[in-house]
Structures are given as structure tokens and as C-alpha cells.
Fold:
Amino acid sequence: MSSIYLDHNATTALDSRVLDVMLPWLRTQSGNPTSRHVFGRTARAAIEHARAQVAEACGAYASQVIFTATGTEANNFALKGIAAGRPGTQILYSAIEHPCVSRPAIAMQQTGWTSRQIAVDNNGIVDMEQLKALLSTPTSLVSVMLANNEAGAIQDIATMAETSLQAGAFMHTDAVQGLGKLPLSFTDLNVNAMTVSSHKIHGPQGAAALILDKRVDIQPLLHGGGQEKGLRSGTENVAAIVGFGTACELAVANLDNFANHTRALRDQFEHGLASLNVTIFSKQVARLPNTSFFAVDGIEGETLVMALDRKGFAVASGSACSSDSTEPSRVLLAMGVAPDLARGAVRVSFGTHNTAQQVADLLATLKHEILRLKQLTSIAA
Structure:
């Protein structure tokens, strides 16, 4: 039995058109991009073309794109690198940030920095009044994700950036979940740094970027050969970067289709959920069009995920980077959701290849599995 993939916020399949442009760099093309000979110059030209493609997709200039290997690296680079180049002792981040933002911020406390969380409301939206209050203390950097990877809630980053900049703090946003799902403009968001990643948009794993305001004094995490303008040393992964560029171009061209198609699937799914007595999170605010995060009271999310997996549906219980944890979703706890309900959370994230029939099949299976699991719980009690 083939499984139906419904976990696109975790990662996406490599687009065949992306693979096509990568294959020459995996099979026949050679040359270090820093080499002076024709092979090196050809590799350098391919990287610069991809840089322009990523910049175009992000509403930025090519000169602002710094390639990294992962979104995690780019986020660490933003927090640690910007903080190292700025006076002040405080870093702020939202209570629903991905661990690759929250954990570096916490780790920086060991080197004398103060890191503080900004609270969110019960829909996962940042509390602007608390942000303003926290900014009354000299602050170097504020980091808030554009769209949450679990609940899908979209933040008003431009307003937060304006507030932060007026207080003398730089603004970074993790836009990994926004690229390819929302119109994205580095300029319009008014941020100083923005993270994007390839494998969320049907590009290869192993390529990401930090989009950086030229005015930002940032210190490198890696020192070596001086690649990426001395900000990210290490021989570039040409194949992955070339694939990332093409994936960005394709994602922008498909943006409207993606949003319309996945929103229709999500709405169909959530309409069906209404009869199953579930709680849908962040439903009252703007969300990613493809994301539905819900919980069934009395049923563990991991148990339901495994039950659906056995029936051929690949969904998630939250962030893929936290899937080895048995604790309730940190995002939901920050939103004030009771721990017992938070443990029941399941995320479905649709892609363009999913269909209305798959949604109907998922709903029928979900209804059957919820009933079965509740009966087992009743017997055990």
C-alpha cells in the first residue's frame, strides 16, 4: 500500500525539474567555485545565477543573499553573528519560535546575553504590547518567525520590525515556512535579516540562505577560505545551490496555484473535522493556506499519527525537529492550550499534488480511527 504524503511543512519531494538542473553538477561538472580556471568560473557563474533567483523570490538584491547549508545554520548565524557585532545585552524571540532560534538564544545566556521570550495570544500571535515593554531595555536583536511551522499563524512582521528598529534593535525573521506559500518581500517586511530554505519548496536538502541588510554588521560563525564574502567559509555545494535557485523560481511561478489549491483542501478537511469534535488551532487568524493543526481530546497525537500511518496517511504531531519528544507541543503551551489537549495535536500540511479525494479518504479514516481509539480508551478505563 502506498502512503499519501501530508507533511509538507516538514519537507517536500525534490521536483524533477530541479533534479534536472542539479544532475550535471553531480555527474559531469567539476571545479571549485573559487578556482580561476574555466571549470571554477563556470561553477561560480552557476552559483551567482542561483543567488539572483533566490533574491528574486525573496524580494531582495542578489548581493544580500548569503548561502548556508540549512535553515538552522542561517538562524544561528543571524542570532549569534548579529549580536556579536552590536552593543547591548538582550535578544528577544517569540514563545513559538522553532528550536533553531529559541535554543541558540538560550545558549547565548552562557556568554553574558539575556534572552527573553515574547508572549503570544491563544491564536499564536505575538503580543505587541509586551514586545514594546521588553524593548524598553536596550536590545540588540528581535527574532520572530513569519509563519509558524505547526499552527501556521502568520505574524505582522513589518509592524514588529518598525517597532524594533525605532527602539534601536535589529529585526530577524525565520521565513522558512513562508517561502513558496506566501508573497515574500524582504524589502516590504522591513527586516534586517531573513532565513529561507530549499527543501521546503521542492528543492534539495543542504541549501538555505540568510538574506541580509547591507547595513548590518554581522560576524561569521565559520572562518576559513572566505567564501560568501567572508561571512560563510567552506566550499559551496554547487548542485544544491543550483537546485535551490531553480526551486525558488518554480515556487514563485506556482505561488497562486499553491495557495488556492491547498487552501481549498484545508477548508474541505476542516469542514469535515467539524463533525468529529476536534479543536482546530489558530483558525481565527491568518494562517498558511496549506496547514491544519488540530487535536482530539483524550487521544494522544502520536498514537493517532501512528494509526494513520498504518492506514497509509503520513501526517505529523508537530514540528519534525521535535518529533522525538514526548512532551506537549511548545507552541500550543505558549498559546495557553491545556497540556492534555496539546498532547493530542496533529498537523496536516498539504501540497499541490494532494487531491480532494485524498482529503475525503483521510477524513473517513480519521473518523474510524478516532472512534476505535476512544473505544480502546474506554475499555482500558
